[in-house]
Amino acid sequence: MTVRAIIAAFALSASTSATVDRPDASSIPHITVIANGQRDWTARYRFDRPVRRLVFVRAPDDSRTRTWTAMTGFQIIVPKAGGEILRRIDGKPFRSVDVSMPPRYIYLAAGYAPFSPFGDGSVLMHSGRLFACGNVCPAADSTAWPIHLIVGDGRGIQLGDRSAARNLRWIDKDSGHNIYVGREKPAATGPVNAIIDHAFPGDLRRQLLVQLPEFMQYFSEQLGPLAARPTLFASYDAAHRDGGGRQGGTLPGQIFVHYYGARWATEFTKPDFASDQSWLFAHEAGHLFQRQLGTEAPAGWWIHEGGGDAFAALALRRMGPEMSAYVDRRIDRAQLACAQTTSDKSIHAAITEREIDPAYQCGLLINLALDAAIRRRAPEKDGLFSVWLAYLAREKRGATTDEAGFLACVATIGGQELADQLTQLLDTPSPRIALLR
Ligand SMILES: [Zn+2]
Question: How far is the CA of 299 from the centre of ligand 1 (A)?
Answer without folding.
Answer: 15
